[in-house]
Amino acid sequence: MKRGMVYLVGAGPGDAELISLKGKRALQQAEVVIFDRLINPFLLTYAKEDAKLIYCGKQPCRHTLRQEDIQKEILIHARKGKTVVRLKGGDPAVFGRVGEEAELLAEHHIPYEIVPGITAGIAATAYAGVPLTHRVHSDSFAVVTGHGSKKSGTPEINWQALSKGVKTIVFYMGIKHLKTIAAELMSRGKVSETPVLVVQWGTYSKQRTIEGTLANIARKVAQAGVTNPAIIVVGEVVALRSKLAWYDNRRLSGRSILIPGPEKKHLKLIDQVKQQGADVFAFPLLTERATADRHQLAGLLGSNKPRELVFLSAESVQLCLQAFGEHKLDFRHVHSPIYAVDPSVRQTLRSVGIQAELLEDSRLELPVFIGKEAEVESMRHQYERPAEELILTKQQVSQKNIEAFQRLIREQHVNALLITSRVEAMQLLTFLTLSGIEAEICNGLQLICKGKDVKLLLESQKIAVQSLIEGDELVGLLDIFDIEERIVMEG
Ligand code: SAH
């Protein structure tokens, strides 16, 4: 029997790009992923199509019991010979209970690896423009829990040693006891003007920072309504933020856009938008399953019918040729004229030695539209004369995409949804239907469409569209967001 393997992986603090390559690879190989509340849900899209995902968001009041359940869950799957990833926020060994989990695995002789992650205290301070050490201001830092094991939760710390011995102190899980923490530090020798920074949701686009001093930070944080997850940083280095802040003062800081389409199709836009400070999550909501059977493909051979084969995308060319190969058919026996829906598809056809005409300037006898299901459906709406269809692949929905999509929206990691083509609009609609997610989930988001036809399509399905882009996507986005900001400021 296959031996189980467990990876205890640090997912990093929030920004999805802060997971390690090793962690990402483990995730891509996992058959079971047991994940925490604090991980960025986008990371789940790296899992396999059929990976089993188990959420174990810890509820504060059921701490101990839940940890036992999680450990049981890890054991069950590892014993079945599965590759399990236990995905934890930040670093698994910093207030992440990796010690207990590894101990259990060692006891049961189950092989495991610990994959470090970037811990919130280091990452959130870096994104806030605060270096934990500094040649002039800080020669040491400590990472401390702000939540004790007593019933009251007040931290049990050697305050004297901490106040006197360490220059920069980072508290985790300390928001609830901020007042006590500040009071203890002041009473053991830290001056009341010592700068303090609180960073909530560090490295996420929704990162929030509150600055103050030991004397006033508790009041400021209460006023701002900041809750966990947040870290508290105490020390002179905090003052450097006024000079070094870089993350939260860019043109699109605080914006987070979900694009329901493959990352590789939107690379340029993603790059540009990220440079302006926004977060972008792009992933296809649906995956493809080959559907064309031998009989259908063989039907394309010969030229006994007057008809034209129309390829609807570059991918459809590859998929069709691949299907021919898999069914041991020879494309040279196709004698119908070949058409391409646009110049890039024609180029793809050329690159594999097939000369095609463009669809736009042609009147066809009886086109056979060849493509993936969404492409063919989209064509069906546009082409008003008789046509045949060859659907090469159909879409299906996986648990990982449902989890990622729902959590990104429900946990408010995204505030805008960008749809740039009819195909992606159709995919969104199909995804909602197949997964049983209500279209209302989009209500809290700013829905941005490129092109009037995309807008009309979504609106016909009762999805409200707030903004329309007609030309360049980046220019459009900057326009939309800047105008909105002006309205907010004027209001
Ligand atoms: N293993 C994690 C810490 C888990 S304890 C790590 O290494 O980061 C949970 C606490 O971590 C939260 O209460 C909060 O204090 C801190 N935390 C986790 N993610 C955070 C984030 N993105 N921003 C600010 N604090 C965070």
From TrEMBL:
GO BP terms in the entry: methylation; siroheme biosynthetic process
InterPro entries attached to this UniProt entry: 4pyrrol_Mease, 4pyrrol_Methylase_sf, 4pyrrol_syn_uPrphyn_synt_sf, 4pyrrole_Mease_sub1, 4pyrrole_Mease_sub2, CobA/CysG_C, Siro_Cobalamin_biosynth, Uropor_MeTrfase_CS
GO molecular function, one term: uroporphyrin-III C-methyltransferase activity
Residue ranges of domain Tetrapyrrole methylase in the record: 5-217
EC number(s) recorded for this UniProt protein: 2.1.1.107
PROSITE patterns: SUMT_2
Keyword Methyltransferase: yes
Keywords assigned: Methyltransferase, Porphyrin biosynthesis, S-adenosyl-L-methionine, Transferase
Pfam families registered for this protein in UniProt: TP_methylase
Top-level taxon of origin: Bacteria
SUPFAM superfamilies per UniProt: HemD-like, Tetrapyrrole methylase
Family: Belongs to the precorrin methyltransferase family.
Cross-referenced PANTHER family: S-ADENOSYL-L-METHIONINE-DEPENDENT UROPORPHYRINOGEN III METHYLTRANSFERASE, CHLOROPLASTIC, SIROHEME SYNTHASE-RELATED
Protein name stated in the entry: Uroporphyrinogen-III C-methyltransferase
Organism whose genome encodes this protein: Halalkalibacter oceani
Gene that this sequence comes from: cobA
